[in-house]
Amino acid sequence: MERRSRVSVKNLLAMSEPVTDVCVKGWVRSVRRGKGVAFIALNDGSCFASVQVVLDPQLDNYAAVTKVGTGACLAVVGQMVESPASGQDWELQASKVEIIGQADEDYPLQKKRHSFEYLRSIAHLRPRSNTFGAVFRLRSSLAFAVHKFFQERGFMYVQTPIITANDCEGAGEMFRVTTLDPLNPPRSADQIDWKEDFFGQRTGLTVSGQLQGELFATAFSDIYTFGPTFRAENSNTSRHAAEFWMIEPEIAFADLKDNCRLGEEFLRYVVVYALENCREDLDFFNQRIEKGLIDKLEALAGAEFRTVSYTEAIELLRKSGQNFEFPVEWGHDLQSEHERFLTEQIFNGPVFVTDYPKQIKAFYMRMNDDDKTVAAMDLLVPRVGEIIGGSQREERYDILRRRMADQGIAEDDLDWYLDIRRWGTCPHAGFGLGFERLLMYLTGMENIRDVIPFPRTPGHARF
Ligand code: 4AD
Ligand code: MG
To answer: Whose CA is nearest to atom 21 of ligand 1?
Structure first.
């Protein structure tokens, strides 16, 4: 076939009048053979819909083309004409078809509907399915929307390191990065001598870019990070991944209220962006994955988010009369059953929970005047639970040092972090939003493994 520029199915279907001599390339979703005519649905991933290719027996290679299997790759030249069939405006009458890549009947994505579990086991092929096509198109658009939101507001995008020596959250969930021989590591005094390691100290994959983000916020005022984050937590839940993407804005001259406002504005912005720019895919999720999804998103776009303190939330949960698996007690972290009850049953929408007990939160959160709670905030949303975690940061040098001492964090490791409080310290705040949790909320998909291209969870890193 002569070289001809390829038109995407998306652009082709958006045309407003018939066109001759166009070329599309894509993968066969279905072949239907009729009397004296055959139809192929061809999809190139540019949009949800496939283009209907009409094949006439006059085609040179009609017999071969009508025998191709689902999944085969084709190039088709022809003319786009109005379709007499219902459910589509246009169809492509083929004048030439080239079989680029054959597919036999072993191709796993045949017509029947497959479970998401099964599709995870063929993660190399699932992007060619309807659901995952929609998920990953939405994911791409949303990543763009994230940058657009912050760039429009003058935030600087900073790439914080992936390899780091600091466990920001202090939860001991870092994956180790080392070049030492695990069978024969250098030792001194019977311990592994990390000084001999590549970086001359113990390092791991980052659990959060926040600490470095704070350094940049105290130079550039408003910054954000958007990158991969790693946690070796062995919790096999539908909302945790060992590798996920996090968006972390950090704002100078801001307190907890400013932080919540930014979180609310941000979430609303990306929801509206999806409604305006990803409608075809959202319609699919609305019909097939979560009924009422679009109504929910439209409601969120107009709603004001509620705020309760942790202490109030505990009271509401205790008064609810609900039987929880885990006890509701002041001083204990909220379990996901509590979070979901708050956002789904009590508030029936997004809710910020603020001012958590100091003993269940990280060392960097700002101490409140009561000396019992810190200026933390989590945003909870229906179905997903915690989608954002953030706080105002402790900007007071002495109080921060005391908090570090209380939690057994060595000052030597974080002297640079403390320095920010010595020279030109200022109130500042920020949060982290899990990109996959956001996508779960926007698509209705119930498992985090189904909104990230190649999920990393305990025991799974094959693809
Ligand atoms: O609440 P987290 O642990 O907060 C931080 O890491 C702060 N340093 C953020 C900051 O203030 N800059 O994580 C933030 C968000 C969570 O609310 C959740 O959406 C997501 O990151 N998250 C995960 N997503 C998927 N898999 C996991 N294992 C996750 N752990 C956290
Ligand atoms: Mg959290």
So the answer is: 434
